[in-house]
Amino acid sequence: MYLKLPPPLLMLITLAAMYGVGQHWPWWHFSFWGKQGVMLLLCALGAFFGLAGVVSFAKARTTINPHKPTNASTLVTSGIYQYSRNPMYLGLVFFLLAAWLYMSVLSPIVMVILFVLYMNHFQIEPEEEMLNLKFGDDYKQYCQQVRRWC
């Protein structure tokens, strides 16, 4: 695995970078009616996707540790995993989007995009390689049926 830091820590680092970008290179401040409601919805979605992923893994009694996908004992395809192959990472993105709305400036969205690209390359792709080796055709079929993010 290329990744050395846990994804929640990477989200916090991204959040700090978003704040820095918003403070030092603010571009296009915005506000709209109902922003707080949208932020709450994004936080609720983040919590839902993250917790649903954890619950699905717990029910299957398999590892949640993103650094050791080889320890996975079961290919989880039920629950939230019917709709997203990476609901916990998707939950982190929802939290970042809520923070972006809170900042009310366009420029930090670049950090959210970089977070997604980083996660795809350094976390998800290596995980998928390991799961493909471990679960073979079952995992390939699952990947054809369920999208990576949502």
TrEMBL record:
One of its GO terms (molecular function) is methyltransferase activity. The keyword Zinc-finger does not apply. It is a multi-pass membrane protein. The chain crosses the membrane at residues 38-58, 89-118. Pfam families: PEMT. InterPro entries: Phopholipid_MeTrfase. It is found in: Endomembrane system. Keywords: Membrane, Methyltransferase, Transferase, Transmembrane, Transmembrane helix. It comes from the Bacteria. The keyword Transmembrane helix applies. GO terms for biological process: methylation. One of its GO terms (cellular component) is endomembrane system. This is Isoprenylcysteine carboxyl methyltransferase. It comes from Photobacterium jeanii.
